Amino acid sequence: MGKLIANTPCDGLLPLTVGSVTLSEEDVGAIHSISPLNGKQKALSEALKAAHGMAYPSANRATGKAGDRAIWFGPSHVMLMGPAPDVTLFGNAAIVDQSDAWTVVRVNGAEVEDVLARVVPVDLRLSQFKRGHTARTLLFHMTASITRVGENAFQIMVFRSMAETLVHDLKRAMEGVAARG
Amino acid sequence: MRITCPYCGERDRREFYYRGAAVDLDRPAPDAGGEAWDDFVYQRENPAGPIRELWFHEGGCGAWIVVTRNTVTHEMIDVQLASEVKA
């Protein structure tokens, strides 16, 4: 077999800057879904803290920092982004490697909230949605995970197959905001 | 119309998928007989007033919820996790 070359989901699509807002692809490392076994959530959180330095996030929150993040993804469902899960997690959770299943982008800039307000039906303004807050919601017609990672920066995740749609929808929103001047 | 997800808070109706009357939580036993199964599969109330329904937070956290709402006033009376109602 010939040598295969791995492409990222947004290969050839990003980065992209329109007006004050920049959309770029994030290389977050490995992505593992982690679901605590019945009654093991506390033990799992302790193991996460000891091995990766972050607690199990409560609903609508993310813990950790860039490169080592745990994002709440739903009831009994967290995404560990960055490190490969430590063996001490294995007895406390069902863990699935989903590294290649997700498109992960970063969108940042002065008018980023105006751009996202056009496509996301959740109030993402800083007063309501602070750093470390996360939401499972829609981005136009796609299910997405949206996390604030900075004062003017968000991380957005959609299914890998939706990469082109995501870039298209965000580009249109960015152009719409930029056109208003 | 807005629905309050027990996990995510108040969200727009477009994030939710509608399943129907919350009869699925009271599935008859396999040997319950033809009448019970006919009721379960086909017979539905169509009340002018409060109704219990199953909704799925599809464009969100993925929780199944039992919503009680008033079909006349559109009031959202109650929302509970289906997993807790069933448990």
Automatic annotation (TrEMBL), chain A:
Name the record gives this protein: Sarcosine oxidase subunit gamma
TrEMBL record, chain B:
GO MF annotation terms:
sarcosine oxidase activity
**One Pfam match:** SoxD
Q: Which Gene3D superfamilies match?
A: Folate-binding superfamily
Q: Cross-referenced InterPro entries, in alphabetical order?
A: SoxD, SoxD_sf
Example of a GO biological process term: tetrahydrofolate metabolic process
Q: What is this protein called?
A: Sarcosine oxidase subunit delta
Please report the organism this UniProt entry assigns to the protein.
Ruegeria halocynthiae
